[in-house]
Amino acid sequence: MANFVSRLVDLFPYQLSKFPKEDALACKENGIWKTYSTKKRIR
Fold it and tell me: Which residues of 18-34 are buried (b: 16+ CB within 10 A; e: fewer)?
């Protein structure tokens, strides 16, 4: 794997291998913030 991300689709595998996070993404649903981990996003 390259040391940089050139396509958006490569972002999550790169993040999982280098900097896995429990709160990689967040969105607000019905006024409540919901977070998604890198690992959960790839599944």
Answer: eeeeeebeeeeeeeeee
Q: Taking the model in full, what pTM does it have?
A: 0.60
Domains of the chain, by residue range, sit at 8-42
Cβ burial, residue 13 (10 Å; 0-12/13-18/19+) = middle
pLDDT at 36 > cutoff 70: yes
14/39 Cα distance (integer angstroms):
11
Q: Residues for the chain: how many in total?
A: 43
Backbone angles phi, psi at 30, to 5 degrees: 55, 40
